[in-house]
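Fold it.
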Amino acid sequence: MEIPDELYREVILDHYRSPRHHGKMEKPDVLEWGKNPLCGDELELYLTVNGDKITDLKFDGKGCSISQASASMMTEAVVGKSLAQVKAIVSDFKGMMMEGKPADALPDDLEDAKSLEGVQKYPVRIKCALLSWNTLLEALKKLESRKAA
């Protein structure tokens, strides 16, 4: 079923105006920083893990509506998921953004994130949409390296 672009715009604006999981965290397990040098988007990602599950994830920073909405959507999609599930969710989202995987093929966890499919048409904006997702992958790498040590 084709969803009108206007509905997608509303979803993006809703996440931009009322971001979920926005703010700083007092004692995160991991704090990771990301920046998009092309447009100046900046992001701090605060991650708390219990066992193999993300129990809390917050973001703070400044940037365009795409980067901020995408970060909000990402946090909603991954909080409460196992690290393996999170990696799969990130892979699915990146597949849509970078490889043209159809939004309809994405799992329900990415329902709101499907609204960013249209960003593919603007290659310079893809990095805006991916900033938080790539920063999350870096945070997971940091977490895994600590566990291995």
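The beta strands are 30-35, 42-50, 53-62.
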